[in-house]
Amino acid sequence: MKTETKGSFLQGAFILTISTALVKIAGLLFTIPIANLLGGTGMGYFYTAYDIYNMLAVLASAGLPVAVSRMVSETLVNGNRDEADRIYKVSVRIFTVIGAVIAAVMFFGADILAELLKNPNSALSIRVLSFTAFFSFIMSSMRGYFQGHSIMTYTAVSQVIEAVCKLVLGCALAYVLMATELSYAGGSAGAILGVSVGAALSVLFLWFNMRKMRKNREPSGLAIRSDGAIIKELFRIAVPVSLGASVMSVVNLIDTAVIMRVLQDGLGYTYERANWLYGVFGNAKKIFNFPSAFIVPFTVSILPVLTAAVTAKNKEKIAENMTNCFKFAFMVSMPAGVGIMVLANPIMNIIYFNTPDEANAGAPMLAVFGLAVILYSVVSITNAILQAFGKVNYPLISLCTGAVVKCVLNAVLLGVASINIMGAPIATCVCYVVMIAMNFAFLGKYMTNLRSVAANTAKVLLSSLVMGGAAYGLYALLADGLGVKLGGLVSIAGAGVVYVVMLFVFRAVTVAELKGMLKRR
Fold it and tell me: 20 to 30 A Cα–Cα from 257, which one of 115, 120, 291, 452?
């Protein structure tokens, strides 16, 4: 049986991790000046628009690439390149139309959406983001095709293109429009316009390489399914995954509405104060999203490789890839989560250096989000494994259950005056715990490698806890003398060194293993 998929899980994860690092660094370089320029007020508009965009565009970024990647990977196991190409053509046509409809809803319904969320000044930002939504659908079809071949390079480069445009154009336009009569609303929209331009350029890059890859390729001569059969299979996989991903986006949107309404109507805060607090909450969540994004390369890379192993009924490869996915994802999420919990205050003050009130108010929220980083990684990994085994409905069930828990708990906690905005990150953690418990119950018989997963997890956890203790001690010693920002930076650097050393001390990773990873590349 001939396979056309290329590379390995670790190859794909390595490539996407490098690109994610570049993207996230660019995103951080974007967030720092934007947040310090717009403050809590402007960032309130910015995050409101993004919550609406995420609810709609998650259909493109979640279900579509997963469906295309899985279908292409299964087809290439049998060497059927013709059907793989057909899957791409059908998917890109369908989702271009869907993307256009969603973009139109955002553009023409921006005022209505903003009013529903009790944040009317965010309408301009929502309208600008509609273009990003359109290009995201086209882009995701292309990325799914490449990922089905286990070729992650083009996805990685396209992500970097998006990030660079956001950084350069977004910052420039935000500064320009902030100085006009549009003020904060204009600054937020300008920052978002850079994102839209980056999405358009990424589509052009992927389209060019798609044509180059398929040019002069010999047909496989194998029979291909009809367009109707491909569409049916595409939606069978994409719809549950998209709905599952959309659940959390809808919940985030509900978060926005609940936070704004409860703070204003329940606790009596003014619109300006409620929007400011929501901006602070968004700033803390932005930092939570930074390490969480590094989990995505592992889930994206595991899907085609694990799907191929499941299709070939290769039990050894299935166990190996599942173990590696947990191990390397935890090596990222655990130190990040522990570090955020311990150093939340200096981290907020380092990033939001020009807005100390926002930084100090957001630190307790960020500390709770530190735990959420670790929990999120488990949710993401178990979702991807279930999808690879063809159990695409199970993640949807756990996501819906967790979402209900989050919405109820959010409304209750936000209404308690002594908790108020802190209720949102607390509810997020409880939501993830519920989803993790359900996903492991669903995995059941598939988790034949629990012993190796538990052993690797214990090593990484010990390394992270020692690192956290070192970070706490260093900051306690240095904060008074060097100040919050400099003391925090030194503590972060020192903790990083301690963590790397501890990985080798506890043999969470070995030199031979690292050499093997490099050889695979």
Answer: 291
DSSP 361-375: HHHHHHHHHHHHHHH
CB 30 within 8 A of CB 171: yes
Which residue reads 């336009």 in tokens?
173
Specify the pLDDT at position 54: 67
Query: Which whole-number Å values give the CA distances from 352 to 33, 62, 281, 512, in the listed order?
Result: 8, 31, 13, 41
The span from the first CA to the last CA of the chain, in angstroms, equals 24
Q: Does residue 398 contact residue 392 with C-beta atoms inside 8 Å?
A: no
Q: What is the pLDDT of residue 249?
A: 65
The per-residue pLDDT for 5 is 44
In angstroms, rounded to a whole number, what is the distance separating the alpha carbons of residues 143 and 168? 24
The answer to whether the CB of 166 falls within 8 A of the CB of 27 is yes
pLDDT digits (tens, 9 = 90+) for 74-111: 787 777 778 888 888 888 888 888 888 888 988 998 88
pLDDT digits (tens, 9 = 90+) for 108-135: 988 888 887 777 888 888 888 888 888 8
Residue 172 has pLDDT above 50, yes or no: yes
User: Which letter, b or e, does each residue of 433-467 get, where b requires 16 or more Cβ atoms within 10 Å of its Cβ?
Assistant: bbbbebbeebbeebbebeebbeebbebbbbbbebb
- DSSP secondary structure code for residue 10 in this structure: H
Distance CA 500, CA 367 (A): 22
Residue 319 carries which side chain, given as an amino acid letter? A
pLDDT at 12: 52
User: DSSP secondary structure string, 420-464?
Assistant: GGGHHHHHHHHHHHHHHHHHHHHHGGG-TTHHHHHHHHHHHHHHH
Nearest-angstrom CA–CA distance, 166 and 160: 10
